[in-house]
Amino acid sequence: MDGKRDLAPDADVDEQRQPVRAGEAEPADTPVPLDADPADAAEQAAPVPVDDEDDYRPGS
User: Fold this and answer.
1) What does each C-alpha distance from 2 to 7, 16, 53 come to in angstroms?
2) Is 42 helix (H, G, I), strand (E, B) or coil?
3) For bias kind Low complexity, which ranges apply (predicted)?
4) What does the H/E/C string look like for 4-36?
5) 3-class SS at 46?
6) Nearest CA to 17 among 25, 30, 8?
7) Distances (CA, A) of 42 to 28, 34, 35, 45, 51
8) What is the pLDDT of residues 5-46, one digit of tens each?
9) Is 51 strand, coil or helix?
10) Distance between CA 5 and CA 1 in Å, rounded?
């Protein structure tokens, strides 16, 4: 064991170990927008240039 388990609060650990019970899910109060901002989508679609000097992958 790595010793980090002792850092978790007991109430959270107990709650996370309980099985999911059907029918208890509550719908979200706030609607979630499913459409993306066109500027954000374009920025994320842009390719990122590869710089060989900054390549820290092992074995290269």
Assistant:
1) 11, 19, 36
2) helix
3) 28-49
4) HHHHCCHHHHHHHHCCCCCCCCCCCCCCCCCCC
5) coil
6) 8
7) 29, 16, 13, 5, 22
8) 666 567 777 888 888 777 767 777 887 777 888 999 899 888
9) coil
10) 8
What pLDDT is stored for residue 31 in this prediction? 78
What's the CA gap between 5 and 45, in Å, rounded? Answer: 40
For residue 11, CA distances in Å to 1, 23, 59 come to: 20, 22, 44
Phi/psi of residue 50, nearest 5 degrees: -95, 130
The answer, yes or no, to whether residue 3 has pLDDT greater than 70, is: no
